[in-house]
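User: Hello! I'm new to structural biology and keep hearing that structure can be predicted from sequence alone. Could you demonstrate with 5-methylthioadenosine/S-adenosylhomocysteine deaminase? Please show me the input and the output so I can see what each looks like.

Assistant: Of course. The first part below is the input, the amino acid sequence of 5-methylthioadenosine/S-adenosylhomocysteine deaminase. The second part is the output, the predicted structure written as tokens.
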Amino acid sequence: MPTNADPLDLLLLPTWLVPVEPAGVVLQNHGLGIRDGRIALIAPREEAIQHPALETRDLSGMLLAPGLVNAHGHAAMTLFRGLADDLPLMTWLREHIWPAESRWVDEAFVRAGSELAIAEQLQSGITCFSDMYFFPDVMSELVHKHGVRAQITIPVLDFSIPGARNADEALRKGVALFDDLKHHPRVSIAFGPHAPYSVADDKLESIRTLVAEMDIGIHMHVHETEHEVGEALDKHGERPLARLARLQLLGPRFQAVHMTQVNDDDIALLVEHNCSVIHCPESNLKLASGFCPVERLWEAGVNVALGTDGAASNNDLDLLGETRTAALLAKAVARSATALDAHRALRMATLNGARALGLDDHTGSLEIGKFADLVAFDLSRLAQQPVYDPVSQLIYSSGRDCVRHVWVGGKQLLDEGRLVRMDEEQIIAIAREWGEKIGSKH
């Protein structure tokens, strides 16, 4: 068992350290020490440099924060980036995306698209993400290989999907993958029933039974559009969230993605069952799906996290940009300039995301004992000067090009903006090959 006398593996000395918990705190001229993949020291610089360390990195002009948590995405769909833009959701899905998936999606597609997405997310400061897509076993291999952290959700729909002939087969494969990975330090499994309109009651009841036995999360698109809610009222006589409550799916591990259509009854259900909401503002804006009332949810005590959604509807995996959009949009929706300030926005993109995925004991904030999942943002450039509040400057004045270093579990995966364990040129070349093939047939 290591002691405080043992040398640190790495000592980082940033200009600003933002732990996220406690809320609103900025520590200036502090150091953070890592030992055995976890945060072992946070102390004023003068005290920190007294600790022996195998390596010390000076991060002058940089803000050190928890790695960003992208709480909703479809990684492999990055290969469909820009394929069918400027269309409403159901037209986009039914006439373009679903036919393209039917034609192209196989294990090779998922591998290439997911590697592209992992690389982009690392360069964007994302250390942990949730992925909902076909062939989840392929993504689990890539997460293991490339050193990132992820929740992998098992897609379940009423009809055949790539990799599963029906919902029962998808559930069986999900249970097997969970059994294989339940002790993995960086991979967690959840079930991902696509949406209330695409999964019948009997399948949802099967999922409810399994998640209770396995103690895992449910990740689901809910109340994404006004049409979805209206159709549910016509078909079931109740709103989708109320139906899920009746089927006993709601609870602390339920992750409701989108929630652009929210009334007082919906908020009461979310609060009663302690559910998390995952807000995807840019995808919702681009598809004209509606506005998630972030400030109302926050004031009610609902945990609200952030997701990029897939690059096919965003069109990037830039969670820092997503956070800026979320902060600005929240003010407009609430009609209040004080809604979702910069510090709370950063919390949404870090600790709230970890909490939504059931990982807040391990990541999402800079606290002693948590995994050293870190990102260093460079705030030294011209367009960021002067710096009064570094968190405000990060959210409102910075882009993902300011991401300089990324560590997951104490292992560096991005160094001076360069991928450490991935071949960027090869990833680009493979993505271009897929683009030429898909584009010639679309």
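User: So the tokens describe the shape?

Assistant: Right, they're a compact way of writing down the 3D structure. Reading them back into a model, for example: The longest helix spans residues 424-441.
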